[in-house]
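assembly run, all chains below
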Amino acid sequence: MWVVKRAGKTTEVKAKAVVPRRRRFPGEPRVAHALSGPLWELAKVRGTRFNTGDAIGMALDIGAAPVGNWSGCHAVAWERNAPEFGDLAVGDQFQKHSYPWGIYINAEGKRFVDEGADFRNYTYAKYGRVILSQPGQFAWQIFDAKVKGQLRDEYRIKQVTKVTANTLEELVKKLDDVNADAALKEIKAYNAAVRTDIPFNPNVKDGRCTTGLAVNKSNWANTLDTPPFEAYAVTCGITFTFGGLRINTGAQVMSTDGEPIPGLYAAGELVGGIFYFNYPGGTGLTNGSVFGRIAGTNAAKAAKSESQSKRVAGT
Ligand SMILES: Cc1cc2nc3c(=O)[nH]c(=O)nc-3n(C[C@H](O)[C@H](O)[C@H](O)COP(=O)(O)OP(=O)(O)OC[C@H]3O[C@@H](n4cnc5c(N)ncnc54)[C@H](O)[C@@H]3O)c2cc1C
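ok done. output:
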């Protein structure tokens, strides 16, 4: 005799054979992404190595519904030689988010993304994926002395892979694993394409762009002409996956039958359906706080009413 659930009703059926099927969404974010596309197993994990997705797996095993952009994630430019998982002593300082003031160069010596497409808050969480898809899964960020004062604090930690030089010719030779001749040609072409007639203004989308390049820069296109030049090596650091458990507005976990699972609440990164393709800065903690409060309040209410009904039943 087997117990099956259909349309919310549990019934017993007789069968001589069954084919059990366990939903498998491997918890470890890099493994989850290896299923959704190549190379994700090579990304660094920005957070704790203890977030293995166990809770998602346990909920799915009892019939919770998955939802959201499973092949999407929050992933950023991250120190190329950072450890495999997050390091509490360094925290988020492995990230390198000042690329709007400079340019990216890949192993082939090419620019590959519009560094100035928008304010970094709207591009940083999706550019990690772009770096991961480059040859060798790395890139260099290049700046000149004009913008040095605008680089974020994370550029001034000890644990950086950084090179400096007084000429571009010297700099490109120091970029590990990069085609130096191609990189020099690319930087010169970029410099020549900058609309220097438009003033640079880091406080607004200034429209100071390049024209005529295969990959143009839309804003903050400064020429790289003032030594010393600096370059920082980055790879992809994954923060969290966008897919997760389906919840309702009361933060109750929904089953694949479309009903709330009694007593099960969820909030934060293990919830799916919040972010798709991109993520605006600061919304991870906002999401966790808002749904965390709702989930906690409702879980406490449910626990209280259950213990009250047990007391009533006991009297
Ligand atoms: C480096 C970094 C920088 C970030 N910066 C920002 C930022 O500036 N702004 C922002 O809004 N968001 C930021 N985020 C995202 C934000 O931190 C997360 O969205 C948020 O912390 C998620 O909260 P959570 O409670 O869902 O998960 P977590 O905070 O990850 O908590 C989950 C906890 O569950 C534990 N756990 C896992 N499995 C088990 C198990 N089987 N048994 C028991 N315990 C278990 C884990 O150890 C962990 O303590 C950043 C994340 C990282 C990694």
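Helices lie at 29-36, 54-61, 120-132, 168-174, 180-193, 283-314.

The chain has a mean pLDDT of 91.

not gonna interpret more than that til we talk
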